[in-house]
Specification:
The structure is a homodimer.
Chain A (H helix, E strand, L loop, with lengths): L8 H13 L8 E2 L2 H8 L3 H13 L3 E4 L3 E4 L5 E7 L2 H7 L4 E11 L3 H6 L8 E10 L2 E11 L16 H8 L4 E10 L2 H7 L6 E11 L2 E10 L4 E6 L2
Antiparallel strand pairs in A: 1-3, 2-3, 4-11, 5-6, 6-7, 7-10, 8-9, 9-10
Helix pairs in contact in A: 1-3, 2-3
The structure holds a DNA duplex.
Amino acid sequence: MSTPDINSWQSVQDEVLRRIHNRIWKPGAQIPNETDLAKEFNCGRTTVNRALRELAESGILERKRKSGTRVALHPVSRAVIAVQIVRREIEERGASYGYALIDRTVDTPPHAVTFAMELAQGEEMLHVRAVHLADGVPYALEDRWICLRTVPQARDYDFAQKSANEWLLENVPYNRATLSILATPASAFEQEYLAVSDKASILHVERATWRDKGPVTFVTISYQPGHRIISTTTS
Amino acid sequence: MSTPDINSWQSVQDEVLRRIHNRIWKPGAQIPNETDLAKEFNCGRTTVNRALRELAESGILERKRKSGTRVALHPVSRAVIAVQIVRREIEERGASYGYALIDRTVDTPPHAVTFAMELAQGEEMLHVRAVHLADGVPYALEDRWICLRTVPQARDYDFAQKSANEWLLENVPYNRATLSILATPASAFEQEYLAVSDKASILHVERATWRDKGPVTFVTISYQPGHRIISTTTS
DNA sequence: TAGTGGTCTAGACCACTGA
DNA sequence: CAGTGGTCTAGACCACTAT
């Protein structure tokens, strides 16, 4: 073999990727089974399995029992976005963080919110709006609905010092979440609190979370115009 | 033990998550080491390792050799976005796909493009613009620069029938990619080809790819207003 | 230096699925 | 039914790092 030693799952992965990139294994083509590859690379089948499993998870290979492993024809690559609290997002940019509560009311959420939370309408929830500042300038708005049935303790917290963003993460664990990204023109509320014109285009991240079967919260983060969400991509 | 049988890595993971959610293991706290957990669950250490490794990859646990495994204090959850060719995106919505080339020129890319591709300015590239249609209606615009040094064969392809999006994926593999999501008001070009007003807010996905050290392409996909990018979230 | 996670191995059995 | 991937196990050694 002209290739360097192949004895770790990482090196197996590298060699497989090399063969795919060099068209030794073409898109759609079947590759040898795990046992044969293990023999060829002189390593255990477990090692080959780990290498191939990760490539299948990242969409480069397609595996099926009995019929074997193929190079994906139309690889669906997976971009990963790190979702974290806004304070950390700001601090990681090297800016100083500020927070201001705008209002906190108990109200009936609009249909868009109950729909995203997979609920019927009519239930009252806690509605919290706030602005996150970077070096004193508005960085993002937070518009959040909290389900008081699942999170009754939110009724006693005023969110004046600590954002709901952070308070929930520290106090209310969740099991399941959805995330949606969209763009809209700046609403009147956004124009006022982000200090932008009605021509501004705003990037929104909407996130709903559940704990077991109970809805926890639905939040929209609206970013200052020009904001980018950057992904750390995999292969 | 009152818990159901724990004998697969999946059930180990479920049990660990249950303990974290129920605050049996609190944020920041250390959990038992792999050997002890294997004993408790009456399974192999390898099984525990796989369960914990995945949780560490998804940001719920933090692991360090010698010092052990802790529940993450500020979990950075990872939202995964599937990036695939626009044709499949449209077909998965149950619409019929259409494609039209707008123009194809050789030109010097603007600074924003060379910057994203990590290049010096001055090099000529192939510039291809096209519209993707869903049921005959503009769905997204593709504005693409292709590096002719890395992909010389693009000079001979006209992109009249098949989009660059698809042609590149089938013919030019890449190793590395970046992805960026942003919102802007509709440009004159977007207003014309997406048939929207100057008040429209457009969601863009920018993607640059490289093969080994060579830049392959930089593309901006501009979606029809109202488009959402939806994530399949983990844990 | 010692404790922890990271990985490899050989062998085994199971689950799925195409022929 | 038979071939393939999916997983588990016990044991081993290695790599990193707190002390």
